[in-house]
Structures are given as structure tokens and as C-alpha cells.
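User: Fold this; C-alpha cells only.

Assistant: Input:
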Amino acid sequence: MKKKIIIPILAVGILITTAGFRNDFFEIAKQIEIFTTLFKELNMNYVDENTPATLMDKAIKGMLADLDPYTVYWNEQEVEDARIKNSGTYTGIGASVRTMNDKIIISEPFKDYPADKAGLKAGDEIIKVGDIQLSDFEDDAGELLKGAAGSSVELTFKRQGKTQTTTLVREKVDVDAVPYSKLIHGDIGYIVLTKFNRKTTIQTKAALLDLKSQGAKKIILDLRGNPGGLLNEAISIVNLFVPKGEVITTTKSVIEKYNKTYRTRIDPVDTEIPLVVLVNGRSASASEIVSGGLQDLDRAVIIGARSFGKGLVQRPKKLTYGTQLKITISRYYTPSGRCIQALDYWNRDENGDPIRLDPKEYNKFKTKGGRTVYDGGGILPDIELETSKFSPITTALLKDNAIFDYATHYYYNKPMSDWKSFQFSDSDFQDFVAFLGKNNFDYETETEKEFEKALRRAEDDQLDDEIKSSYNALIASIDRAKAKDLLDKKAEIKSLLSDEILKRFFYRQGLYDYQVERNPEILEAVSVLQDEKKYQRILK
């Protein structure tokens, strides 16, 4: 009897599954056919000239726009850029740049690389590459800086209102995952880890072993500002400090093949050495896998500010003609079961914005030793510090390049020859505030953006005359609140200003040299590591 019952049920199941598959296949084919015929008619009949590639690029971006921001289409050049980013080596001018309208801004020249050798400084505005005026160039101007190793290019740039020229020779540029490591305070090894590329584990392990050979008995791993990268490298970094066979993260998806458990696979370097990890609001993705894993296993004390909160995993999928789709395939979970994703892109509010989980709704989890930790919004440090935070006003200043531009102003007006004498004083901060006013920096808060939308809607409804005075009074109140917020968040703003200024004078090497002696987060890490009872008390 059982066989007679089971066989029909299985048959029905197969029929349902097959029917469901056929329905999905038909729906996909139908939609593709509709789009193909639309695209054809549009290109053949639209009143003005248009470019098929541009139309398709916009169509693809529009289709992906309502998903999460990490699911993106890469053209051939972007695929190559991603490969270079993960490899840690590329050929170019040796500087990070920012493309703006009809110019390229040098953000940071790397010491002893082509841009630096050619005399370029942070804040320089490149307006001409070779014979090409950037104001006349419609494509990505950054592509003009690329070229074969040994090739030269003449650059015309503006600095402090004056136009100058220089010639640089492109060369191979190595992007170190670990740009700095040093033995500090006698027996503490300090390691800066800035990215998760294919060099990450090799360089971090080498730095760790070197510091131990110098006498390091405790370690600080600095992940502040690290945006993440390769998942396997994150697992390997945790593996340096925890035994073989530990679960570091699991990934979960509606697609079965993406449900995986990632464990440490090799023998560690040191499972006992006291460890502190530094994070902030710009520590994301792989950085959160490392800090979250070490926290959940009670293997490290986490210090700084709540991390970014990116708990999504992406994988590139090859398309035709050398293009790719980088697609979110799963969510990742820390050893305790936490998903630290901060924004819910699949359930949005009435404005279409992703929902941020209210802290009151965070769920409790337990670490391996029984400590309470929470999900929902990044990795919350065991010790939080004000100087490591990124408040909305600080984020607005960074987004509008106010801190960057003031550092340029400072560099050309306040000479400095020794970082040991540097201190960004309260009078310097007042000068920064005055600089904002003088240069009409109008950093816009999210609140202002929403009110401005409401005013535009009121204009459409012909109600603006009735509410204009109230709106102006409201904006005036917001301006006063912003001015107060500048002072309230002085500690974190001063910290970012100090970092940007020091890079101008002494490159990153000088910045790190300064930080190991003066930075509040590093000093707090040193204090915890030097107090064994406090260190153990936090972990228990």
C-alpha cells in the first residue's frame, strides 16, 4: 500500500516542479522578447539620434537599481579594474584620484611612485592629459591616465589657482594589503590591514611572524577604513589566530548551492597571543567577517565604533563580450549566528528607501564563551570610542570633500617639518569652521533633502506661497542645529582632519608613525593589552 501511495505523490511532485519550471521559462522568454522588440523599435524610430550601447547601459542600471547597491553590471573595463583591484598590482601613475566633471583631482599620491616623482600633490586638479582637454572629453577621464609601464604622459594641472605642467612615466604599482607594521610600546605588534586582496594573508602572516621575532607578545590588528574584499582571505586572516576546523562564517541563500560553511583549514600561527582589533564605520564586509568571527569566538577585544553593516556576499558572473554581473548571492552569518546586515533592501519604506532595523529590534546571540552580542547593524565593539565614529554631520563633510579641501588649504598655509610637533588645536578647528563659511560649504543633511522634496511637491500643488515662510524658518533652525552639531562632533571631525593633514606632509608612513603615538583608539588598545585582568574580564 505504501508503494501505491508514494509513487503517485512523487509523480505529482515531479509534474508540479516541471510545470513550475516551464512557467518560469515561458515568463522569462516572454519578457525578453518584449524587451527585444521594444529596443529594436526605439532604435529605429526615436525622433532624436541615440546610441544603442548607452540605451542598454541605462536599461541594465535601471533594472538593477531597485535591488541592493552591490548587484551591479560591469563593462569590459570595469571587469579589468576589479581584477586589478583583487590582484594588488596595476600599471599607472601611482595615485588615488577622484573624477569630477571636467577635471581629475589627485586624492593621494603614493610615495616614490610616478605621480609623486612628478611632483603632483593631493588637491591638484588635472585639466589636460597629453593633448586632450578634459572639458572636451565625454568618457571616463580616469582611463586617460592608464597606459603601459614605461610610457610617459604630460599633465596640465591647477594648483592654488596657478596652471602648471609636468611629465610622468607610468610604472607597475604594488598595492600593499599591509602598508604598515611596527613593534610599539615594547612588546605590542601593530599591523594595519587596509584591504582583502590576494596578498592579504601572505602579507599579514609575514608581518605577524616578523613582529613576534622582534619580541611582540600582544597584537593590534587595525581594520579601520577597510572596505573588505575577498571572502577566503578573511577566513584565512582569522585562521592565523584560531585553531583549524573552527566555523568562521556560513552563507545562506534561497539557492541551495550557495549555502556554505567556511571553516579554518590550516594550523594557526598563534592561538594564545592577546589580540585587539580596531574597527570603525568604514570597516565593512570581509573586515566584519574577521572582527565578528574573532569576537564570537572570544578571541579578540574589538575597539572603535560600530562597523558598516554589510552582511551580503557577491559573486561575479561572466556575461558575453567580456562583461560581468556582480550579483548578491547570499547573506553571511558570524559563528554565533548573527547577520550584521544594516539595511534591508528587500523591504523598503514609503519613499522607496531601504529600511534600517531599529536597535530595539536587534536580536541577542551568545559568543562561544557566553557573552551577549547583537545582530542588525554591523559589529558593535566591546569598547566604543567617540573619535572613531562617523556621525551624519561628519559623513556629510566627507561626502562634500570639506575635510579634504581644508587639508589642502592647511598644507599651503601652515608649513610643517616634523609630525611630532603637530597637534590640531581648538583654534585650528575654529579656523576650519570659518573656512566652511568662507567657501560656502553647504553640506546637506538627509533631513534637508526630504524637506526640499516636500517643498517641490508643494510647488507642484501650488501650495508653496502658503508654506514658504514656515519652510524658511525650518531651514534656519536646521542650520543652527548643524552649527551646534559641528561643535558636538568636534572630536571625530578633528581626528579625521588630523589624519588628512598628516598624509599631505608625511604620506601614510608619517600618518601611521603619528597614530601609534597619539591616536586615541590605538592608545586604548595598548591600555587594554597592558592590563591583562581588564583584557580577560572583557572576554569573559
